[in-house]
Model the fold of this input.
Amino acid sequence: MIRLIWRLTKGYRLRLWRSPYLRWRIETWSGIDADSITPKRFLAFAWENRAALLRYLGWAASSGRR
Done:
């Protein structure tokens, strides 16, 4: 799972809210406009949805090993 997170955050590891991929995923999953994602909004989203995000990361990591 750590390897997947490392790969998904390449280039944005200290500024996750600026990652085009993560912004797109948040926008399509939650409906939050990607242009309105700030550090505070990103952290609030991640905290509120931490269980679902961990399930997604577990699923994506396991499907990537096949």
Observations:
- Residues 50-64 form the longest helix (15 residues).
